[in-house]
Amino acid sequence: MSGVQAAAGKKRPRVIVVGAGFGGIRAAQALGKMPVDVTVIDRRNHHTFQPLLYQVALAVLSPGDIAQPIRQILRHHSNIEVTMDEVVRFDLDAKRVYLKSDAVMVYDYLVIATGSTHSYFGHDDWADKAPGLKTVEDATEIRRRVLLAFELAERQMLEVGSHPPLNFVVIGGGPTGVELAGAISDISRLYMTKDFRHIDPSEANVLILEGSPHILGAYPPDLQKKAIEQLTKLNVRTRTGKHVTEIGEGYVMLGEERIESVCTLWAAGVQASPLGKMLGFPVDRKGSVLVDQYLNPPGHPEVFICGDLAHVEQDGKQVPGVAQPAMQMGTYAAKRIGQLVAGRDQGQKGFRYFDKGDMATIGRKAAVARIAWPFKANWSGFMAWIVWLVVHVFFLIGFRNRFSVFRQWTYTYIGKQEGVRLIVGSHDLPGRWRTRLPPQRRPSFRPIALRS
Amino acid sequence: MSGVQAAAGKKRPRVIVVGAGFGGIRAAQALGKMPVDVTVIDRRNHHTFQPLLYQVALAVLSPGDIAQPIRQILRHHSNIEVTMDEVVRFDLDAKRVYLKSDAVMVYDYLVIATGSTHSYFGHDDWADKAPGLKTVEDATEIRRRVLLAFELAERQMLEVGSHPPLNFVVIGGGPTGVELAGAISDISRLYMTKDFRHIDPSEANVLILEGSPHILGAYPPDLQKKAIEQLTKLNVRTRTGKHVTEIGEGYVMLGEERIESVCTLWAAGVQASPLGKMLGFPVDRKGSVLVDQYLNPPGHPEVFICGDLAHVEQDGKQVPGVAQPAMQMGTYAAKRIGQLVAGRDQGQKGFRYFDKGDMATIGRKAAVARIAWPFKANWSGFMAWIVWLVVHVFFLIGFRNRFSVFRQWTYTYIGKQEGVRLIVGSHDLPGRWRTRLPPQRRPSFRPIALRS
User: Fold this and answer.
1) B319–chain A nearest CA distance, Å
2) Mutation test of the interface with chain B: which of A15, A17, A81, A163, choosing the one with the most B Cβ atoms within 10 A?
3) In B271-349, where does DSSP find H-type helix?
4) Which residue does chain A place closest to B410, by CA atoms?
5) What does the pLDDT look like over A172-190, one tens digit per residue?
6) CA B179 to CA B367: how far, in whole Å?
7) For residues B272-293, b (16+ Cβ closer than 10 Å) or e, as one string?
8) Exposure letters A315-347 (e unless 16+ CB within 10 A, then b)
């Protein structure tokens, strides 16, 4: 405790922030300037800039470009401590948080912002067959699978002289699905063609399967149409209105129809972090906690729920589970805690989401953008893509990351230079791709002629 | 086959290169300019610049900075194909290579350069407790363990108010051990002190255990002495002349003496890739194949063994298992194959290692360098470190990597900026560090006071 506080003879209120995503980091940064002591708890040591994760997955960026240690982000706030741990239970009445390490912490104010994770709609066995994209590890795994699909096809050409069609299936037509699909098309057509001798990576087919009637459901119809046009140019097909019924090794079932797939990715469903249900308050279908205008659950003005974990209604619509609202909620929660600490909490304004718009890229040099601020417009194509670039570099945390991403994009988009196509982790090739011919049929051959 | 060859009516000889380390890549690059068809086989999709791996392990560089896809390195040689596979057996009489994928390949010339791996001297169970440093995955694992050691100490302070001493033990006092130890000292003293509130990372102790009488055994005695001086300045202690007898969770036994260790790393022994013994020729103690002056094993002038897998004697001494000789052997093997293909193989010179010297860094801004070319000198300290920087940036493959490493070093060494301290992979904290107190003794406390 500093001398000033000791002289004041008053203990500073303790705020615990659980989760260091967009909501938690913004809350912590704002609390760092207030007369409170803050503990940030996260399972990971880093904050992840999720909107660019798909670029790590498709080997444009490195994990270090878009993730940064939480301690590093908050190091200059001397009233903040960070601990790498996991919450296993809350006792809101006793104002206690129970951690996986057996430690118990007491708080005066609590901010919960643990976000969301994939939902496989009850088919948890699909997780292995179609990985989703929420963490740096997920991105590395997706990269591994996409790159291995090409490696295996090349090897099969050497081994048996043919390979299954390079069908990539992305399940889910929201922004993440569209961005993944566009990026797969890009790397296969632009960057990988010179690398292989026996296969033609540009023959890759990418297919988006969306269960609802439209891709990019949150966007206005004219942008949906533009998105489909731009995807078609990239040789990405979309199929909507039918739900996937099964995912297996090398295929996806759409009702009775079997779609061959060398690599299946999941971008369909999300569910709130399980901590939401654990709190015991009413939750919505996705497990997000229904909070009031101050982001408090019923009866707990000292508890704030932010980001994807919070279900906030505004003008009859739910505030979407994306980065912008999460950041605004984090900042709001911190401000509100400041008011409560100062005893100025009567008659203050509730949270209001200030909608600046939405954006999704479609491969390189195209995007759709619903701009809501500083003017209203629906843009698509190259200009929307430029806006996307500028906004994303601007919002990245840390100068080093901004510079690094900017440099990498310059290489990739202007210089057509390769990205970071490393396969890290298991290099073991899945058994299903090892064409086990009976011994007498095994080809014993000189490597086949190189493509000229 | 190209028109010219078809007209000549002659099939081009097939060269198979196994392993894409320094030896294999150099051989392939030289063969890429010759009238042969080349197949490069490697288990991984990337070439790793091993001399800088310790900087990935200690979070200065990203994996993408020092590793590059093999296909990308060799893409401009249209006579080279790359396949990601693993050799399981050779049949040198039938000139065949059997692969894990069940494919069989026939060659005219064979270059084997599969390098070396860690040796735990028969204690394979030590591998989990003290990871070594040969691959990008190893580097990520070491980074995870070093960073987690600090995270756990901080958490233990929150939980029980004390933590075990931050002892890091590096087993092996060769260049890798010295570089790892110096880098651990660096990050703990320079970059991590502002990140923690309850522990002081600069209190970290680093200890090098070397079984032989001297660290850096391959260097002249005056450089060994300088190295110890420079290590002492970094608070790195060295103990020599005693062998480790046991490695356990949280400790290392040196005979009867128990040394506590929050993180133990292995840099002691190497052994040649198991393919060496599989060939059936005489091998040395480490499993490297005894080759003649043309790098051929007995009776097989069409088979070349390069790099760590080859035991080459020159002037009564063994050529060391480091990058320079491996590269020179690769280039020599390719040149020799060119001579054999052209029928100009009589009376040609055998391989001779051209020794330019050796270098090892000792933390930031110090190194030892035994310079053998273009002049002879033993340097230590800052100037040696500058030489080390220049040489390593120069030898990195690819402009992008060179630029990226240069930029990162500028940040790190001049700007004192943080590196890439991400923990990727399992964030689960090892059980041994979870202080399991009986329930009645569990502390239920407000987080302890922050350090002012």
Assistant:
1) 31
2) A81
3) 275-278, 323-342
4) A400
5) 999 999 999 999 999 998 8
6) 9
7) bbebbeebebebeebbbbbbee
8) eeeebebbbbbbbbbbbbbbbbbbebbeeeeee
- Mutation target vs A (from B12, B109, B446; most A CBs, 10 A cutoff): B446
**Does the fold of domain B126-270+365-426 match that of domain B12-43+85-115+273-342?**
yes
ipTM of the complex, rounded to two decimals: 0.88
CB burial of residue A29 (10 Å; 0-12, 13-18, 19+)? buried
pLDDT digits (tens, 9 = 90+) for A44-70: 999 999 999 999 999 888 898 899 999
At the top level of CATH, the class of A8-43+85-115+273-342 is alpha beta
**Residue B138 φ then ψ, to 5°:** -60, -45
Q: Is A20 exposed, middle or buried (0-12, 13-18, 19+ CB in 10 A)?
A: buried
Kindly report, residue by residue over B403-452, the tens digit of the pLDDT.
Answer: 778 777 877 776 655 566 788 776 555 444 443 333 333 443 444 444 33
Q: Which CATH architecture has domain A126-270+357-425?
A: 3-Layer(bba) Sandwich (3.50)
Interface touch A103/B443, C-beta < 8 Å: yes
- For residue A330, the 8-state DSSP code is H
- What's the mean pLDDT in A313-325? 94
Name residue B368's amino acid.
V
Question: For B126-270+365-426, CATH number?
Answer: 3.50.50.100
Residue in chain B nearest A60 by alpha carbon: B64
At residue B301, what is the residue type? P
H/E element holding A143? helix A136-160
pTM of the model: 0.90
**Got the DSSP string for B170-239?**
EE--SHHHHHHHHHHHHIIIIISTTT-SSS-GGG-EEEEEESSSSSSTTS-HHHHHHHHHHHHHTTEEEE
A303 contacts: CB under 8 Å, gap ≥ 6: A92, A109, A110, A112, A296, A297
**SS3 assignment, position B323:** helix
Kindly state the greatest CA–CA separation across chain A. 89
3-state secondary structure of A260: strand
The answer to whether B39 and B13 are in contact (CB under 8 A) is no
Contact B1 A449 (CB under 8 A): yes
Length of chain A: 452
Enclosing H/E stretch for A373? none
Distance spanning both ends of chain B, measured CA to CA: 73
Name the more confident of A157 and A291: A291
The DSSP bridge pattern shows strands B263-266 and B167-171 to be parallel
- DSSP per-residue letters across B13-34: PEEEEE--SHHHHHHHHHHTTS
The DSSP letter of residue A191 is: I
Residue bearing tokens 């569910």: A271
Instruction: Give the Cα separation of B284 and B271 in Å (integer).
Output: 10
- Domain segments of chain B as ranges: 12-43+85-115+273-342, 126-270+365-426
Low-confidence stretches of chain B (pLDDT beneath 70): 1-10, 397-400, 414-420, 426-452
| Residue A1 pLDDT exceeds 60 | no
C-alpha distance from residue A148 to each of A24, A140, B208, B297 (Å)? 36, 12, 39, 35
Which CATH architecture does the domain made up of B12-43+85-115+273-342 adopt?
3-Layer(bba) Sandwich (3.50)
Interchain proximity A400–B411, CB inside 8 Å:
yes
Chain B closest-CA separation from residue A235 CA (Å): 24
Classify residue A442 as left (phi > 0), alpha (psi -120 to 50) or beta.
Answer: beta
